[in-house]
Structure formats: C-alpha cells, structure tokens
Amino acid sequence: MNYWLVKSEPEKYAWTDLQRDGETTWDGVRNFQARNNLQQMKEGDLVMYYHSVSEKSIVGVAKVSKEAYPDPTANEPRWLAVSLVPEQAFAQPVSLDQIKKEERLQNIALLRQSRLSVMPLSPEEFEILLRMGQ
C-alpha cells in the first residue's frame, strides 16, 4: 500500500463535501508531477485530505476507490483523475504549524514542495499524522 496527501481549498471542495457525496472524482490537476503521482495511486491506497489556503490543516483520511483514468475536465488525454471515498475524519485537524514543529516530519513533501497538490507520504509520515489527528 502507498500513502498520499491531496490538497483542496475548503471553499471549493471541503472534507465535509466528500463525506456528504460519499465519493468524488479527483480531477483538475494540471501539474505534471502531481499527475504522475495520481498515476501511481492504487485502489485501496490511503490519502490524507489537506485543507489548503484558508485552513492549512489535514482534516481526514480518504481511500482511492478507482485508479487513474482520463480526467473528464481536461481537453487533453494526458491529464488524469482518480476517485476517492472518505475513510475517517480526524478528531482534531492537524495544522501546518503542528507539522512544521514535528521533528520527524521535517522531510515531508508538504514542507518541501508546498505548491504540489498531490504528493506521496512515507508509511512513517502517514502514521505520525494519523496519530496527531486522533
């Protein structure tokens, strides 16, 4: 199993929207590195859901329910999407400030490539974040 983090502005598509909908198409990614990460996602992989811009915190865990397929919002076939379902909400959001202060997370992609919308997490990073959110 692989672990990931995806970022969404809560004003555009919040964790509560995913919970309400039960499943979503993760589309609209127009960065090659993020697209390559989408392409590597496998059904069953777990995904941290990060509210960017206004909240800057991880709020839950989703699961990949459908592996990469052509992005229905794209005019070119090179862009991809995956489907996500909600797995569990965090009892306590994990803020960017908390992540920055956690010594074991100093190499996390969220801090090194802050503009990337889809990024891998190591199993250790995932477990640390999961514990922080519970």
Features:
EVE domain-containing protein, ph1033 like fold, alpha+beta, 134 residues, 5 helices, 6-stranded mixed β-sheet
Mind explaining what this structure looks like?
By secondary structure, the protein is an alpha+beta fold. It has one domain: ph1033 like fold. Helices cover 28% and strands 37% of the residues. A six-stranded mixed sheet has the order 2-5-4-3-1-6. The longest helix has 11 residues, at 123-133. The chain starts with a strand and ends with a helix.
The end-to-end span amounts to: 21 Å
Portion of residues within helices: 25-40%
What sort of overall outline do the alpha carbons produce when their principal axes are compared? globular
Strand content: 35-45%
Topology order in helix (H) and strand (E) letters: EHEHEEEHHEH
Largest sheet, described in full? 6 strands, mixed
CATH topology: ph1033 like fold
Trace the largest sheet across and list its strands.
2-5-4-3-1-6
Q: What is the arithmetic mean of pLDDT? A: 97
